[in-house]
Amino acid sequence: MGFTIKPICKNCGYTTNAISVGGGRLNHNTQCGAPALNTETNEIEEINLYDYKKTEIDKKKILYFFYRNVIVEKTNQKYIPYYNSKMFIDDSEVGQHHWSNKNYKKSKNFCPKCKSFNLDFNDGGIHFD
Ligand SMILES: [Zn+2]
Fold first, then answer.
1. Which of 30, 62, 109, 120 is 20 to 30 A distant from 88 in Cα terms?
2. pTM summary value
3. Ligand 1 center to residue 114 CA distance, Å?
4. Domain map of the chain by residue range?
């Protein structure tokens, strides 16, 4: 079900360990791996999208004594996942890795080291289930 990708920059050579995308048969309800930029360390890391986005119920005061439950979505501000449109150049010629409803460009992704859009996500060669 899931697979791995390997980031490598064609401009500066930056690379990381292979990153797992998606989840396996046994853990896909709790684990959904994705490549993301850690904005504190300036490295590409694997995150779990289930930890990245959480919905919480917030009690909002709408009048002096009326409250309403509002569902708010909170994201972990430290990470920017690579499906975010500011993390790649949108070019329809470039192939994509798909997982669920998320797409990751195979090339023209943002490299955190040389700040150019020359990073490829190569097939990491491992498919797991
Ligand atoms: Zn680079």
1. 30
2. 0.85
3. 4
4. 2-128
